Protein backbone atom coordinates (compact mmCIF):
# COMPACT_ATOMS: atom_id res chain seq x y z
CA UNK A 1 0.00 0.00 0.00
CA UNK A 2 1.01 3.64 -0.17
CA UNK A 3 -0.91 5.78 2.25
CA UNK A 4 -1.28 9.47 1.55
CA UNK A 5 0.48 9.97 4.81
CA UNK A 6 3.56 10.04 2.58
CA UNK A 7 3.76 13.86 3.03
CA UNK A 8 3.51 13.16 6.75
CA UNK A 9 6.36 10.67 6.55
CA UNK A 10 8.49 13.15 4.60
CA UNK A 11 7.82 15.76 7.26
CA UNK A 12 8.72 13.26 9.99
CA UNK A 13 12.09 12.54 8.48
CA UNK A 14 12.75 16.19 7.75
CA UNK A 15 11.80 17.26 11.24
CA UNK A 16 14.34 14.82 12.66
CA UNK A 17 16.98 15.94 10.18
CA UNK A 18 17.46 12.33 9.09
CA UNK A 19 17.40 10.18 5.96
CA UNK A 20 14.18 9.34 4.15
CA UNK A 21 13.94 7.07 1.13
CA UNK A 22 10.48 7.08 -0.42
CA UNK A 23 8.98 5.13 -3.28
CA UNK A 24 5.57 4.80 -4.90
CA UNK A 25 3.09 2.08 -4.00
CA UNK A 26 1.99 -0.78 -6.15
CA UNK A 27 -1.25 -0.89 -8.09
CA UNK A 28 -3.11 1.87 -9.85
CA UNK A 29 -3.79 3.92 -6.72
CA UNK A 30 -0.82 5.52 -4.95
CA UNK A 31 -2.88 7.05 -2.13
CA UNK A 32 -1.26 5.10 0.68
CA UNK A 33 1.93 5.04 2.76
CA UNK A 34 4.40 2.21 2.38
CA UNK A 35 6.49 0.49 5.01
CA UNK A 36 9.98 -0.93 5.46
CA UNK A 37 12.26 -2.25 8.21
CA UNK A 38 14.63 -5.11 9.29
CA UNK A 39 14.52 -8.73 7.99
CA UNK A 40 12.18 -11.54 8.98
CA UNK A 41 11.91 -14.81 7.06
CA UNK A 42 8.26 -15.50 7.79
CA UNK A 43 5.10 -13.47 8.15
CA UNK A 44 4.82 -11.68 11.50
CA UNK A 45 2.65 -13.34 14.13
CA UNK A 46 0.11 -11.55 16.23
CA UNK A 47 1.07 -10.69 19.79
CA UNK A 48 -0.66 -8.70 22.49
CA UNK A 49 -1.14 -5.02 21.76
CA UNK A 50 0.41 -2.54 24.21
CA UNK A 51 -3.10 -1.19 24.67
CA UNK A 52 -3.68 -4.33 26.75
CA UNK A 53 -0.69 -3.75 29.03
CA UNK A 54 -1.31 -4.45 32.70
CA UNK A 55 0.97 -1.75 34.10
CA UNK A 56 -0.98 0.86 36.08
CA UNK A 57 1.04 3.56 34.33
CA UNK A 58 0.40 2.17 30.84
CA UNK A 59 -1.02 4.67 28.32
CA UNK A 60 -4.58 4.39 27.09
CA UNK A 61 -5.13 4.60 23.36
CA UNK A 62 -8.27 5.63 21.50
CA UNK A 63 -8.09 3.48 18.37
CA UNK A 64 -11.01 2.73 16.04
CA UNK A 65 -11.92 -0.95 15.55
CA UNK A 66 -10.78 -0.89 11.92
CA UNK A 67 -7.13 -0.45 12.96
CA UNK A 68 -5.41 -3.69 14.00
CA UNK A 69 -1.87 -3.64 15.38
CA UNK A 70 0.26 -6.80 15.64
CA UNK A 71 3.64 -6.94 17.41
CA UNK A 72 6.10 -9.82 17.24
CA UNK A 73 9.33 -10.24 19.20
CA UNK A 74 9.03 -7.19 21.45
CA UNK A 75 8.94 -9.22 24.69
CA UNK A 76 12.61 -9.29 25.66
CA UNK A 77 13.84 -11.62 28.40
CA UNK A 78 16.66 -9.15 29.10
CA UNK A 79 15.42 -6.70 31.76
CA UNK A 80 17.77 -4.07 30.33
CA UNK A 81 15.80 -3.94 27.08
CA UNK A 82 12.30 -4.70 28.33
CA UNK A 83 11.22 -1.10 28.95
CA UNK A 84 12.67 0.43 25.73
CA UNK A 85 10.98 -2.27 23.64
CA UNK A 86 7.69 -1.83 25.49
CA UNK A 87 7.78 1.92 24.94
CA UNK A 88 8.73 1.44 21.28
CA UNK A 89 5.40 -0.37 20.93
CA UNK A 90 3.69 2.59 22.56
CA UNK A 91 5.42 4.92 20.09
CA UNK A 92 4.17 2.89 17.10
CA UNK A 93 0.67 2.83 18.57
CA UNK A 94 0.74 6.55 19.33
CA UNK A 95 1.63 7.26 15.68
CA UNK A 96 -1.35 5.26 14.42
CA UNK A 97 -3.66 6.74 17.03
CA UNK A 98 -2.70 10.22 15.82
CA UNK A 99 -3.37 9.22 12.20
CA UNK A 100 -6.69 7.50 12.96
CA UNK A 101 -8.65 10.78 13.13
CA UNK A 102 -8.48 14.26 11.65
CA UNK A 103 -6.40 16.13 14.21
CA UNK A 104 -6.10 19.81 15.08
CA UNK A 105 -3.64 19.41 17.96
CA UNK A 106 -1.07 17.09 19.51
CA UNK A 107 -2.45 13.92 21.09
CA UNK A 108 -1.55 13.14 24.74
CA UNK A 109 0.32 9.99 23.75
CA UNK A 110 2.41 11.76 21.10
CA UNK A 111 3.25 14.34 23.74
CA UNK A 112 4.18 11.57 26.17
CA UNK A 113 6.36 9.44 23.89
CA UNK A 114 8.04 12.08 21.73
CA UNK A 115 10.22 14.72 23.34
CA UNK A 116 8.83 18.26 23.22
CA UNK A 117 10.32 19.45 19.93
CA UNK A 118 9.82 16.20 18.03
CA UNK A 119 6.29 15.81 19.41
CA UNK A 120 5.31 19.30 18.26
CA UNK A 121 6.74 18.75 14.79
CA UNK A 122 5.08 15.36 14.51
CA UNK A 123 1.76 16.91 15.54
CA UNK A 124 2.11 19.56 12.84
CA UNK A 125 2.68 16.79 10.29
CA UNK A 126 -0.38 14.86 11.47
CA UNK A 127 -2.52 18.01 11.19
CA UNK A 128 -1.19 18.56 7.65
CA UNK A 129 -1.97 14.92 6.78
CA UNK A 130 -5.55 15.39 8.01
CA UNK A 131 -6.06 18.19 5.53
CA UNK A 132 -6.03 15.53 2.80
CA UNK A 133 -9.27 14.27 4.33
CA UNK A 134 -7.80 10.82 4.95
CA UNK A 135 -7.17 8.77 8.07
CA UNK A 136 -5.37 5.47 8.67
CA UNK A 137 -7.13 2.10 8.56
CA UNK A 138 -6.21 -1.57 8.20
CA UNK A 139 -3.65 -3.92 9.76
CA UNK A 140 -0.13 -2.93 10.81
CA UNK A 141 2.50 -5.56 11.61
CA UNK A 142 5.65 -4.70 13.61
CA UNK A 143 8.48 -7.21 13.92
CA UNK A 144 12.22 -7.89 14.09
CA UNK A 145 12.95 -5.38 16.87
CA UNK A 146 16.44 -4.73 18.19
CA UNK A 147 17.92 -2.44 20.84
CA UNK A 148 21.42 -0.98 20.91
CA UNK A 149 22.97 0.80 23.87
CA UNK A 150 24.45 4.05 22.57
CA UNK A 151 26.83 4.17 25.52
CA UNK A 152 26.35 7.88 26.13
CA UNK A 153 23.83 9.66 28.32
CA UNK A 154 21.76 6.51 28.83
CA UNK A 155 20.29 6.61 25.32
CA UNK A 156 19.41 3.64 23.12
CA UNK A 157 18.59 3.05 19.48
CA UNK A 158 15.54 0.90 18.76
CA UNK A 159 14.93 -0.46 15.26
CA UNK A 160 12.11 -2.58 13.90
CA UNK A 161 10.23 -3.48 10.73
CA UNK A 162 6.71 -2.53 9.69
CA UNK A 163 4.48 -4.29 7.15
CA UNK A 164 1.66 -2.16 5.70
CA UNK A 165 0.45 -4.46 2.93
CA UNK A 166 -3.02 -4.49 4.51
CA UNK A 167 -2.94 -0.90 5.78
CA UNK A 168 -4.64 1.88 3.85
CA UNK A 169 -5.87 5.45 3.68
CA UNK A 170 -9.56 5.96 4.32
CA UNK A 171 -11.60 9.03 3.49
CA UNK A 172 -12.77 10.32 6.87
CA UNK A 173 -16.09 11.60 5.50
CA UNK A 174 -17.15 8.90 3.07
CA UNK A 175 -15.41 5.90 4.65
CA UNK A 176 -13.99 4.91 1.26
CA UNK A 177 -10.78 2.88 1.61
CA UNK A 178 -8.04 3.46 -0.98
CA UNK A 179 -6.77 -0.06 -1.65
CA UNK A 180 -3.58 -0.69 -3.63
CA UNK A 181 -1.67 -3.75 -4.78
CA UNK A 182 0.94 -4.95 -2.25
CA UNK A 183 4.54 -4.17 -3.17
CA UNK A 184 8.02 -3.74 -1.70
CA UNK A 185 7.12 -0.20 -0.76
CA UNK A 186 4.77 -1.60 1.90
CA UNK A 187 7.78 -2.52 4.04
CA UNK A 188 9.43 0.11 6.21
CA UNK A 189 12.42 0.12 8.56
CA UNK A 190 12.12 2.39 11.60
CA UNK A 191 15.04 3.73 13.64
CA UNK A 192 14.40 5.59 16.90
CA UNK A 193 16.84 7.32 19.24
CA UNK A 194 15.25 7.04 22.69
CA UNK A 195 16.07 8.42 26.13
CA UNK A 196 14.36 7.98 29.48
CA UNK A 197 12.56 11.08 30.78
CA UNK A 198 11.98 12.13 34.39
CA UNK A 199 8.73 10.15 34.52
CA UNK A 200 10.51 6.94 33.49
CA UNK A 201 9.15 6.77 29.92
CA UNK A 202 11.49 6.11 27.00
CA UNK A 203 10.87 9.04 24.65
CA UNK A 204 11.84 9.47 21.02
CA UNK A 205 14.33 12.30 20.55
CA UNK A 206 15.22 11.51 16.93
CA UNK A 207 14.01 9.12 14.28
CA UNK A 208 14.18 8.08 10.66
CA UNK A 209 12.58 5.48 8.43
CA UNK A 210 13.32 3.77 5.15
CA UNK A 211 10.44 3.03 2.80
CA UNK A 212 10.71 -0.01 0.54
CA UNK A 213 13.24 -1.77 2.81
CA UNK A 214 14.20 -5.10 1.29
CA UNK A 215 15.55 -6.35 4.64
CA UNK A 216 11.99 -6.22 5.99
CA UNK A 217 10.25 -7.96 3.12
CA UNK A 218 8.27 -11.06 4.08
CA UNK A 219 6.17 -13.49 2.09
Entry keywords:
219 residues, 7-stranded mixed beta sheet, signal, 24% helix, Lipoprotein
- How would you state the average pLDDT, rounded? 81
Largest sheet: 7 strands, mixed
- Assign the structural class, choosing from mainly alpha, mainly beta, alpha/beta, alpha+beta, or little secondary structure: alpha/beta
Distance between the first and last residues' Cα: 15 Å
Contiguous uncertain segments of 5+ residues: 4-53
Number of separate helices: 4
Explain how this protein is built.
With 219 residues, the protein is of the alpha/beta class. It has a single domain, classed as Nuclear Transport Factor 2, Chain: A (Roll). 24% of the residues lie in helices and 28% in strands. The chain has 4 helices and 7 strands. Strands 1, 2, 3, 4, 5, 6 and 7 form a 7-stranded mixed sheet that branches. A hairpin with a 6-residue loop joins strand 3 and strand 4 (156-171). The longest helix is centred in the middle third of the chain and has 21 residues, at 79-99. The radius of gyration is 16 Å and the shape is globular. The protein starts with 5 loop residues before the first helix and ends in an 8-residue tail after the last strand. Mean pLDDT is 81; it is low at 4-53.
Amino acid sequence: MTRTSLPLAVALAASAGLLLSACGGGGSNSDKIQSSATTPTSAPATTASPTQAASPNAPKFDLPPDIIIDFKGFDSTDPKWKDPLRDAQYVATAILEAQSKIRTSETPNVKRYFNGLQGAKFADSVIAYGKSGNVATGTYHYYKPSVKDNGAGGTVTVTYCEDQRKAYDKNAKTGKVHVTTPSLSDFRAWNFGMAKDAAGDWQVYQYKWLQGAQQCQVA
